[in-house]
Amino acid sequence: MLWSLIEKELKNNLLSMRFVFSLAIVLLVMLGSIQVRMDDYVQSTLDSRANAAAERQTHRDTHFWRFQWTGMFLERPVLPLGILVTGTERNPDPRFRVFQKSKPIIRPSGSIDRNPLVTLSTPVDIMFITGVVMSLLVLVLSFDAVSGEREQGTLKLLLSFPVPRSVLIFAKWIGGILTLCIPFIIGYLCLAIWILLSGDVRFAASDWLVFLLIGLSSLLYIAWMFSAALLVSCWFRHAATSMCMLLLMWVLLVLVIPNISPYLAAAFSPVDSAQSVHFKSMKITKELQNEENQQLQELQKRHNVPRWWQEDNAWREGVELVARSHDRQRQGTRAIVDRRTAQIIRQTDLAHIIGRVSPFVSYANIVTTLAWTGPGFEQHLRLLMREYEDQLRRMTTDGLKDQVPFSADMLPHFRYTPPPVGARFAQTLVDWAVLLSGAVIFFLGAYVSFVTREII
Amino acid sequence: MFIALLKKEILGNLYNQRYVITLVLLTLLIGISAWTLERAQETYLEQYAEALEGNKAEAEAAGKVWQFMSVGATTEKEPGDLSILGRGLEGEMTRALSYSGWNEVEVGTVKTFTPLFRMYAVPDFIYIINIIGSLLALLFVYDAVCGEKENGTLRLKLTYPLPRDYILLAKWAAGVLSLCLPLGLACLGLGVYLFFLPGFEVTLDHAIRFALVFLVSVLYLSAFFTLGLLVSCLTHRATTALMICLFLWILLVLTIPNLMPMVARALKPIPSEGKIAIEKQHKAREVEEWAGNTIRAEIHDMDEYHETVARLVAKALEGINQFRRNRVQEQMSLAMNLSRVSPAACYQFAASDLLKTGIGSFSRFQRYVAWYRQLFNQAKDHIIRRARDRAAGAGWWGGQDMASEDFALIPAFKPLGVSFADSLSGALFDIGIIITYNIILFLAAYTAFLRYDAK
Amino acid sequence: MTVPYEIDHLVKRYDNGVLAVDDLHLSVQKQEIFCMLGANGAGKTTTLMVSLGFTPPSGGTVRISGYDITREPLEAKAHVAYVSENVQLYGNFTAMQNIRFFSELSSRGKMEDAALHEVLARVGLGADAHKRRVRGFSKGMRQRLGIAIAIIRDADLILLDEPTSGLDPKGGLDFMNLLQELRREGRAVFMTTHDIFRAREIADRIGIMVRGKLVRVLETDEIEHADLAAIYTHYIDQMAIQEGGARPDTTALQ
Fold it and tell me: What letter does residue A310 receive in the DSSP assignment?
């Protein structure tokens, strides 16, 4: 009997115009955007490679002493999973200057000459297509799941049969979710095939795992939306009223709360400006620089030379001293940056906690963390860049001590690898739980409302 | 007779539950957004003040001329006062800009509090009207004709000796009027809020801009309202009409304006910064070699020679910068023209231009940044010349101390205010498109309704 | 032997205080057609809603083939079929798909397609209509399909809510014949209606309900002689006088 009911729900939905519409929209938007995004990815990787090569070339004529003042540019890595989820990587500055004396890695560097329209628009990716477009379609497909049958009168006929109401609502839930998942799964499979066939983007095995997980989380999000729609549909007598209520809810949950939550978090948990970090670190640098100059003078006196770089022993000692001083500077400035990073993490977490009222925030957090284009990415990147800086520090100190000429070939290659999928997944567990419990609670609400209320 | 129809339509709207929801929602959202963005603006202003002081202190801390050359000047634009209503490209314009003697202009990070701000759109007034307002306008009207047909009132109406165009005109006028009401109330509230906000000085310019933004918003909403009316005239069942309206909304508001910039990026790529850097390096070397071969022999003073070469190099490099800037401009106009298919994009362009955070203001700002670089370089040359005079052959000019007059030479970074006429001329084209959409859609709805089968 | 339909001192008072059914007491035997007459808002439909368990009674019980609808709703529903006033079915489905779906839900279990076609033919739906979507059906066709769905349930009791309103004369006549057949098969039929003349033609017993009260039951021998219209209007007038000329408030009951 349960199966007959589910089958009826499925057939009834699949035969309706709305279903065809939704399928068309989802396919159109998904495939239309993925091609553009893949082209964009190819372009970005080419640019990034060209930039990296150019950067090495600019250091052809430099020497170690100068290098430790200027530092070098590191390219912001372009991750293949970014074609699925843009996250915070919307029109980012393409590179970071690292190992610049006295300056912490705080600000990425870009040109003012760029197309600002990309900043102005919202990227059309899986997060957007599922989170905004699909969720709206879910409401359109299910707003009258119960209230429509009630209005039509078929609900009375159905309930005059010896069918427990609980079975009926359960069948509606299962049938509805299955129907809604079909357009998404079809679109998502087409996406996978498209990515495989085009060959522009190569996903590693772990990337495909993430692809799968993102698909699953999207289905869970769809289930959340559908359960909420079912509850509203059970609650209100008229289909038109439930549609209005659902759209109201949708506007708040998908369009308003996620966008307001960072601002609310910023009001309660402030973060120092990037400029202030810069000023503070400059202050530290200045003090340490003076100290360094003094020590070098003492060194000259001790070795009894007019200039410390003119004598071999004094040189070695001087290089050690300068290296130590640079390290201290770096530690000092890094502590300031860390303080700000901690503030950022606190604010981001707060924004997430506030935003979790909306399933969209949970969903966005899951997909951006899995695709590793979320708020965690840049912090992780900075940590790796610090390690790289330390590498450069060692290389430069040794180079200076041994007085070898600088060569761009000596620069180690910077490779960015995101944290393993397991670790990323673990970060999203809370959001999975929030989505799942939301879906279950709404279903139970719909269940209770449907089973206990009078049908007239 | 027309008045009777109009009155019935307006009353019908006022009693409509959907209408009340629209009213409450719009007012609520505009209020929340104004409050949050105002809080954010306070922080931005604080940060701006902090940056001004810090930048000044940093520049003045440079004791020697060479130190000043390497530190240069860091500047930034004051946060725009109207950006509370539409943030637009304000974030791109308020980044710190570092000018130094030797390097390119270095652009600081976009001023957001956390990376999360880059993930979601800014919930400002423009966003609310653009996304939520258009959705509400469609919801409000989708069953205006086909719904009346479904419940039979349309047939009853048509049995009266009424011209059909009266019926449609009454519906349209009443709908637009009823849309204006909640929007007008919300805007009025917003205006009052801003007026009584401490630290926000309302000038005539603000008032005119705000009034014009309100007008453009009404035009924009009426375009979507008319679109919904057209759909309603073309369909016979309310659910079908709702489906089609939502489909069009997804396409026009969510997809086209967001996808087109990426399409433009793929069609007209901008050379990457690395490529440009390499090209500049080549160019600089080329110019230096050329100079070594030609003018080296003519100029005997080494300083003068280096200065001349530097000037020549700078000129050549500026050409490359200009080339990139032109490519950016081309890509931008392509993206804009492609997105203008959707009134949502037109609205965004027009309204943000009027609030001084639009594309027009941004281009102007970009030009100012380039212009300031020239000013700064002139000042730099001046300072070096003075230092050289002071040194008068005794050692390197860079070792000279900075004089207070030297600091006075550095020009103030004051991007020109965008006049109302400039904003208007920038927005006029998009306003024109929105009006055209209104007219075309209305004519289409009119024709469709005259032929509507009321059976 | 169990009685197919037994209403025992049924009271239904809505949450807003309106007394819709006031101490209703009646039973319908096998092979009997009971017609319930009453104005709009007299409580006829409410009686049906309570009988089907859509809303709980405030007092008294309803038994279907001996099963109390509030205590054993599923067992009770296994013995009842219901045809609503304006039969609405799944518009996207064909007539066959609709009836097949409902046959799967009924206590008899799944039926062969041939048997379903037969039932559809019996209620007068031509073979061409079986494959058509129900969305395009006229009211008469939908009503026929509704009764077909009731027939396949093979229930002891058939509840009909104003089944003939809005049907054309031919349709109404066919419908009546069908009910007669069902009675001959041994089923009990309970039907609410405003239609005095049809009730008189077909009913074994007629009840008159006014403001929730069953004010009169006419037995078989009475029906032929009595002037039904006069009796009916008499009760309604009397009620109006008792209420001090006020019109009965019917809105809350609909």
Answer: G
- Consecutive 10-residue runs of chain B (455 residues): their mean pLDDT? 81 80 84 89 90 86 81 86 88 85 74 80 92 90 85 80 83 88 86 82 88 94 95 88 89 91 86 81 88 82 81 86 88 92 95 91 88 88 86 76 84 86 91 96 93 77
Six-digit token string for A266: 């910023």
Closest chain A residue to B22 measured between Cα atoms? Answer: A248
User: Which residues in chain A have Cβ-Cβ distances shorter than 8 Å to C50?
Assistant: none
pLDDT in tens, B73-82: 888 888 888 8
Distance of alpha carbon B315 from alpha carbon B286, whole angstroms: 13
What is the number of alpha carbons within 13 Å of residue B50 lying toward its C-beta?
15
Which tokens sit at A212? 């799968």
> pLDDT tens for residues A249-270?
999 999 999 999 999 999 899 9
Question: For residue C209, what are its two tokens?
Answer: 């309900």
Q: Is A394 exposed, middle or buried (0-12, 13-18, 19+ CB in 10 A)?
A: exposed
Task: Work out the number of other CB atoms within 10 angstroms of the CB of residue A343.
Answer: 16
Interface contact C163, partner A, CB < 8 A: no
Interface contact B92-A262, CB threshold 8 A: no
Domain-wise residue ranges, chain B: 2-269+345-450
Tokens of B125: 């007034």
* Secondary element (H or E) of residue A415: none
Compare all CA atoms of chain A with the CA of B57 and give the residue at the minimum distance. Answer: A279
Of A1, A5, A159, the CB nearest to C52: A159
CA-based nearest distance A400→chain B, Å: 23
- A166, part of any domain: yes
Q: Which residue of C has its CA nearest to A14?
A: C92
Residues in Cβ contact with C204 at an 8 Å cutoff, skipping those fewer than 6 apart: C32, C33, C34, C183, C220
Answer for the pair B339, B257: CB distance below 8 angstroms, yes or no. yes
Nearest CA in chain A to C73: A162
Interface test with B, best of A12, A93, A273, A353 (most B CBs within 10 A): A273
C-alpha–C-alpha distance, residues A365 and A354, integer Å: 13
Residue B27, classed as helix, strand or coil, is helix
Rounded CA-CA distance A348/A88 in Å is 12
* Helix axis angle, A205-235 to A135-142, nearest 10°: 40
Of A368, A334, A414, which is closest to residue A95 (Cα–Cα)? A414
> In B164-233, at which residue ranges do the beta strands (DSSP E only) sit?
none
Residue A310 lies in a domain: no
Looking at the partner chain, which of A267, A273, A348 has a beta carbon nearest the beta carbon of B50?
Answer: A273
Q: How many domains does chain A have?
A: 1
> Chain A residues with CB inside 8 Å of B139's CB?
244, 247
In a domain, residue A415? The reply is yes
Give dist(CA B361, CA B352) in Å, integer: 9
Please state, in angstroms and rounded to a whole number, the distance separating the CA atoms of residues B371 and B364.
10
Domain that holds residue A134: 2-280+325-452
Buried b (16+ CB within 10 A) or exposed e, B305-322: bebbbbebbeeebeebbe
- The CA distance from C212 to the nearest CA of chain A, in Å, is 17
Task: From B393, B418, B365, select the one nearest B75 (Cα to Cα).
Answer: B365
Q: Please state which of the four CATH numbers 3.40.50.10490, 3.40.50.300, 2.60.40.10, 2.40.50.140 is assigned to the domain occupying C5-79+155-253.
A: 3.40.50.300
DSSP type of residue A413: P
Global ipTM: 0.88
